[in-house]
Amino acid sequence: MLPVSPITTSIFDLFKVGPGPSSSHTIGPMKAAFDFRERLATLPAGQQAHADAIHVHLYGSLSATGKGHGTDRAVVAGLLGWQPESTDPAALLNLLRDPSQTYAIQIGGKTVALGPEHIHFERVRYDSPYHNTMVLRLTEQGETLYSEEYYSIGGGFIIRKGEPVVDPATVSVPYPYGTMAELKAQLAHHNLPLDALLMANEMALTGRTRSEINHRIDQLLDFMHKAVRRGLRHNGTLPGSIKLSRKAPQLYRQAKGMGQLGPALRSDSFLIFLNAYCLAASEENAAGGIVVTAPTSGASGVIPGLTYLAKHQFHYDKATLRSGMLAAAVIGFLVKHNASISGAEMGCMGEIGTASAMGAAFLTRCAQPTGSILTIEAAAEIAIEHHLGMTCDPIGGYVQIPCIERNAMGAVKAYNAFLLATAGSASKQKISLDAVVKVMKATGRDMSTKYKETSEAGLALSATEC
């Protein structure tokens, strides 16, 4: 029997390039604002002529922590016509720096105003199916001429209210699946390795050739590793009121220096290298640098750190790294499809928990040429299981504390999940990935909104001590 709702997400939708610090608060709103700009350009000339301003209303955690995440700057950037992958991070950080500045937004032949006073961080409860909601309005003397409502659902994915829902049955992939059980059934029925099934589906979804897909995966890895290298070089403090000092360069120097010491300390250097790589990418994200959502910007240190380690410490070749990325992607697909990767929906288990599971799958696939799906599933399940209930409570709304160190911890858990899964018989694992994702979804539903990206509880209340 074919799955009722097959996964039709592309690897290039899951792994997106853009500026930090948050995929749901930065990349998503930028994409929504850009889409709104494009729609305004198609309005009748008469309607455009009467407009004098654009107003943006942010709700949920977009309002609660949007300032710290740079949501207001992202919206301005999108309305100016900027897109995430091509955005200059320095230019983005300069937006709204002068509170008196008003930006001229071009709509057809008309220019309308947008300034800080037009961006509203709403504190009232808004009736919406998603936590992160934004409403954009084209106005004349405050009266709405045209509006759209958008939802930022994590990982840079957005939904426009009223947009036709794509019927999965109309999207054809050769090997449809919606759960890990269905994926395993497809692999067994067609006697296919995981790489081949995922590549065939990706080719059908994107229309790209195998060579084009491999080239783009290589590009994504390059973007990730550039973020790591930048982070290893940059010292100083991160933007924002916390004034958090970067740690990655110091850790990296420490790890390199341990090579001259005794065997016990040399073994510790492995973990310090991994920590340095993850912190480096996460600190670049916190600074608003270009990163890759993996699956979100808040979790954009785990996969880059592990892949950098795999390339430079384990010396895996490009083909092996690509296979690992495909395995990581399928875990991200399954969580997104059956639960959520959004911190506003799931807390940090949706972000770091998913990234850790993806990292565990990556390591397992790279280490095993045959790519046993049972072992990959076991590694991913173990990683998610030990992130269940993790809150998202960033201090000051910045993706810094506890987010940066949490990326390093998620990578270490991924490595341990890989060790645990490959040390025993994966077929004897008692909990399936599908089961733990179901538990994850229920846990996220039960978790108080105070612990889901709103900075209203938990560590966020320690802001006065920073």
Number of strands: 9
Individual helix count: 19
> What does the main sheet amount to?
5 strands, mixed
- Oligomeric assembly: single chain
Beginning-to-end CA distance, first to last residue: 56 Å
Beta-strand content: 5-15%
Summarize the structure.
GO terms for molecular function: 4 iron, 4 sulfur cluster binding; L-serine ammonia-lyase activity; metal ion binding. With 466 residues, this protein is α+β, with helices and mostly antiparallel strands.
Supply database-style keywords.
single chain; 60s Ribosomal Protein L30, Chain: A; 2 domains; two-stranded antiparallel sheet; 51% helix; Fe-S_L-Ser; EC 4.3.1.17; iron; gluconeogenesis; L-serine dehydratase
Question: What does this protein structure show overall?
Answer:
The protein is 51% helix and 10% strand. The chain contains 19 helices and 9 strands. It has helices spanning 11-14, 23-40, 45-50, 61-64, 66-69, 71-79, 89-94, 180-190, 194-206, 210-233, 248-257, 263-286, 302-312, 318-338, 343-346, 348-367, 373-385, 403-423, 433-446; strands at residues 17-19, 53-59, 103-107, 110-114, 119-121, 133-140, 143-152, 158-160, 290-292. The strands form 3 sheets. It has a 5-stranded mixed β-sheet with strand order 5-2-6-7-8. Strands 1-9 form a two-stranded antiparallel ribbon. β6 and β7 form a beta hairpin. The chain is globular, with a radius of gyration of 22 Å. Its EC number is 4.3.1.17. Its cofactor is [4Fe-4S] cluster. Keywords: 4Fe-4S, Gluconeogenesis, Iron, Iron-sulfur, Lyase, Metal-binding.
